[in-house]
Every structure is written in structure tokens, then in C-alpha cells.
Amino acid sequence: MELDVNAIVSAFSVLAGVIVSTLYARRAKKAEVRAKEIENAAGYISNADKMIELVKKANAEVALSNEKIINALREEYEKTRKSIEKLERAIKCIDRCSYRNQCPVYDELQKQEGGNENSRKNGNRNSNRNASGHNADSRTGHGADPCVT
Known about the structure:
Blueprint: H1 2-93, H2 104-112, H3 117-121
């Protein structure tokens, strides 16, 4: 039986060695897989960082482009606003203009405001004129238009 006990102890010893080496190999493989997972995660993080930088760069370029467009639109708005203000001043002065009776702009404005064109042609055309033939609103003695700047 002695031989059998040595054989059994030796078999257990080999079995224990196989189990320990299997466990060790399994842990080593898990560690290797975990290291690969960490490496892949680091790669994903690196790629994400690169993508974030690209998006930031694209956003900065778009913001710069938008700023240029906005500035150009502001300049155009200011030009248009000034032109409209100038036109409004001119339209306000049209009633005092000595040439308004022959003015096609004045005629169109009267039509658009619902003014009766026939009443203008039938005598109201010179209603602003005084006995000397000058515009009644004229502030200068020379018949100059006070609205002209």
C-alpha cells in the first residue's frame, strides 16, 4: 500500500500543480485581456479627445464666419437705415418744395395715401402758393427750398 500512497500523493501533487498552473494561466489571461481593454479604452479616449478638438476647431471657424457675416449685415443695415432716414426727411419736406406740383414722386405718394388725384388737378395744385407765386412755406426771400441741405 505504500506504493499506492506515494502514487496517490504524487498524483495529487501533479493534479495540484496542474490546477495551480491553470489558475495562474487563467489569471494571466484575464490580466492580459484587461490590459487590452484598458489599452482600447485609452485609444477610445484619445480618439474622443481628437474628435472634441476637431469639433472645437470647426465651431471656432463657424463662429468666425458667422461673426463676419453678422458684421457685414450690421454695416448693410446701417447703410439702409441711413438711406431710409434720408428718404423720410426728403418725403417730409416734399410739401414745402416749390416743384412739388410737377413732382412724380409726390403724385405717387398722394395716390398711395389715398389722395384724390382729380382734386389736385382741379385747382388744389397751387393752393400753397401766395399772391407773388412763391411757396407759402418758403422761409427765405429767394424762393429757396428750406428742406434742401
